[in-house]
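Backbone-to-sequence.
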């Protein structure tokens, strides 16, 4: 997958999801409306770079140094930056929005920090600014970035004051040390990595939207009991291996179809191939369990053990199908050819192949 088709494929994925939910889940629009926002972000021409860090680390000064002009207010007093603010930066061949944010540990309370995180959620790349060893607050923030899957670069500022470090990128906004190198590194990242990073992040978020939608749909009834009852009653009334297997085929397919309808998912499911392996083995077990010679005499203390054995096999099979089907359905509509999970898997696969070969 090369970069630009990757963004096209992601756009197609979002279009497909939106069209599907418009048609099938208009009543749950609150659950999937954020897909529109994701689609808009995907189509934005400008790449979005956001600074993040504790107060007075030199975030605003760093952006000014990168931009080449004193655009953002810089001050020794903590809290100089009160709101996120964005400027457009025309660097060679790329359009970039640079966003400054308030600090992570603002004295004014957590509101400003929340503002910073809301902007970070929409970033293509975060410049994570620090000056010496990472503080506990910074470690937490870094873990959160990792959990959210947001790409970031660790920048050590004020290198004119603090000793240089082995990790991260060292710069000084005051002396300009390391700034041209950082600019070059960012341009390289934008050219080579940004499309993939954006696609991956948006697919990840779309996948989460699908999961919450699937969970909301899952509250509706998809009970297997009625199908199970039909099958057990049919097997008892008309015993015979082939008949039992035929009945199992009809009732399990009807059950899976009903579950798909409840979740408004296409039938047959893309997962059908792996599910059908289990189902075929289960049919074989139903057939074998109807075979009298399998039990130690068909009558034991006056009880027909064949009937009990077969009933048990049928019941167990339904439990297994339910156990495999439901977590799958609750992922929402994301397993189709263009589904976010599938595309994410492909992306991880190509990345692994590239790493292995290079
Ligand atoms: N010596 C030195 N001071 C810096 C550097 N970058 C920022 N500062 C100073 O650190 C203070 C906080 O800077 P600011 O950019 O407002 O921090 P922010 O709160 O993280 O945005 C200001 O007094 C800046 O002059 C640097 O690279 N070297
Ligand atoms: Mg600032």
């Amino acid at each position: 997958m090369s970069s630009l088709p990757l963004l096209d494929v992601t756009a197609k994925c979002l279009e497909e999801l939106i069209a599907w939910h418009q048609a099938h889940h208009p009543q749950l629009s609150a659950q999937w409306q954020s897909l529109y926002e994701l689609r808009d972000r995907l189509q934005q021409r400008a790449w979005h770079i956001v600074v993040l860090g504790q107060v007075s680390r030199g975030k605003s000064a760093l952006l000014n140094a990168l931009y080449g002009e004193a655009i953002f207010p810089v001050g020794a007093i903590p809290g100089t930056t009160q709101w996120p603010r964005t400027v457009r930066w025309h660097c060679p061949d790329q359009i970039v929005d640079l966003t400054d944010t308030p600090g992570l540990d603002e004295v004014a309370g957590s509101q400003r920090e929340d503002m910073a995180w809301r902007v970070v959620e929409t970033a293509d790349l975060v410049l994570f600014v620090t000056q010496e060893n990472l503080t506990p607050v910074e470690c937490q923030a870094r873990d959160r970035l990792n959990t959210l899957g947001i790409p970031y670069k660790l920048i050590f500022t004020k290198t004119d004051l603090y000793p240089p470090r082995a990790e991260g990128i060292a710069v000084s906004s005051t002396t300009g040390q390391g700034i041209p190198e950082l600019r070059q590194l960012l341009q390289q990242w934008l050219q080579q990595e940004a499309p993939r990073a954006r696609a991956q992040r948006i697919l990840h978020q779309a996948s989460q939207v699908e999961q919450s939608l699937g969970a909301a749909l899952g509250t509706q009834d998809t009970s297997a009991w009625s199908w199970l009852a039909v099958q057990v009653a049919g097997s008892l009334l008309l015993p015979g291996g082939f008949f039992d297997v035929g009945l199992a085929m009809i009732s399990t397919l009807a059950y899976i179809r009903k579950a798909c309808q409840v979740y408004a998912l296409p039938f047959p499911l893309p997962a059908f191939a792996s599910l059908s392996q289990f189902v075929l083995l289960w049919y074989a077990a139903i057939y074998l369990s109807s075979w009298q010679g399998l039990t130690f005499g068909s009558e034991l203390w006056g009880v027909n053990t064949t009937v009990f054995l077969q009933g048990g096999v049928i019941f167990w099979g339904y439990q297994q199908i339910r156990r495999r089907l439901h977590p799958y359905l609750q992922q929402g509509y994301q397993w189709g050819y263009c589904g976010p999970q599938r595309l994410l898997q492909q992306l991880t696969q190509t990345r692994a192949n590239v790493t292995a070969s290079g």
